[in-house]
Write the structure tokens for this entry.
Amino acid sequence: MLFDAYSRWGRLAAAVSVVVLSGALAGCQVRPLYSVESGTREKLASVSFSSAGDRITQEVRNHLIFLAYGGEGAPVKTDYQVKLVVTSSASSTEVTNDTSLSVGKSNYDGPYPGRVTMTGQYVLTRMSDGQVLRSAKRTVTAMLDLPQQEFAKIRAVRDGENRAARELAEIIRTDIAATLSR
């Protein structure tokens, strides 16, 4: 008898929770970002990017142009403007060497771990009325190995900057596409 009461209440609670949960999920909308209906590709293809003043900003800008225009070149008509400022810094992480075996001499001659941190600030503006649609700051970190040789170290930092620039451009492009799809 007691088991029947619990099973009825359990079924009732399950039914109520299903109704409440389905009502809550009804407000969620999931749709493709680049669908034909949203027109995001066309809007993204009408974005112009500000010119770059340094190599890092130019790398990010080049990747953004390729991602936005699909490799087709600059658009004829631009409806949106993106002003982009990119900064980058490279640093090595501290490595403690075990000097107990030989006093005063490092036992580790391999590459040291390091990182490149790249920050991109951008402002997306609609050109028809000058309204700022989005202003954001995004940061990306690329890990790298810093060898002992100076030229190899410079090249490793540049490769890390290039990887960070690609990733930053993808993040910024996704932000811009999400803003334009609304």
